[in-house]
Amino acid sequence: MSHRADGSNTLDNRGYTGPLIRGQNPALLIETATRDRITDSLYWKEQCFGLNAATLLDRAVELTYIGGTYGVGMKPTPFLCLAFKLLTIVPDRDIVLEYLNRGGDEWKYLRALAAFYVRLTFAPTEVYKTLEPFLEDSRKLRRRRKEAYVLTYMDEFVDELLTKKRSMGTALWELPSRQALEDLDQLEPRESPLQEELDKMDDEDEDAVMGEANGGDSSASEDGRSVNGRSANSDRSMSD
């Protein structure tokens, strides 16, 4: 019963005095049915009881896949259980960024977990600023679907967090579009890391087109000079 209480106590708003996320208990950012499955799961009871920001790291580095719920009984994955645990302890921002950046460089599933937490809890502009750099992370991730495992990539997962309404079996709060935040001057326009390469390719294509055009003009010009030369010689011959 104490394991169950560990999860249930965090959901009792009558006694909740911790930090709020968008005006509510952060644990409530996960839907009720999913919360119940998490707090009833064996992984939650055995592996998540009593974790804090430091000891949760030990569990996160053991992750081997991402996912929400799976199977006929819609069992929660360890990934989702740890995400919910983060919502109940609300670690300091610096700790989350440490998970995401330096820790994430070594443990990709730790980065994925931190990215999911960022999407659930950070302010809109901070979500974009914090997660967009990882659109360049192309490492492979295993993802557990309802019936099987599939292959995905970190950049695809981050893009899902930035563009979709649901992820990991969880409804995401509505994130304003990037363009809307740019129009409000809350975000600078994002430059793709490939933009420099694309610009270079455009310049090369333009140079090639100009080269072909100049080649044709050059031929015409040479012909023109030849014709003009003959004309001039003819004129001189006639004048002589």
Spatial arrangement of strands, main beta sheet = 1-4-5
First-last Cα distance:
120 Å
Oligomeric state as shown: single chain
Helix content: 55-70%
DSSP E strands, number? 7
What is the chain-wise order of helices and strands? HHHHEEEHHHHEEHEEHH
Description:
The structure is a single chain. This protein has 240 residues and is mainly alpha-helical. It has 2 domains: 2-183, no CATH class; 192-240. The chain is 58% helix and 8% strand. The strands form 3 sheets. Strands 1-4-5 form a 3-stranded mixed beta sheet. Helix 5 (78-89) packs across helix 7, helix 6 runs antiparallel to helix 7 (108-121) and helix 7 (108-121) packs parallel to helix 9 (154-163). The longest helix is centred in the C-terminal third of the chain and has 45 residues, at 195-239. The N and C termini lie far apart (120 Å).
Could you provide a short overview of the structure?
The protein has 240 residues and is mostly helical. The protein has helices at 2-9, 32-40, 42-48, 55-60, 78-89, 93-106, 108-121, 124-131, 154-163, 178-183, 195-239; strands at residues 66-67, 69-70, 75-76, 140-144, 149-153, 166-167, 170-171.
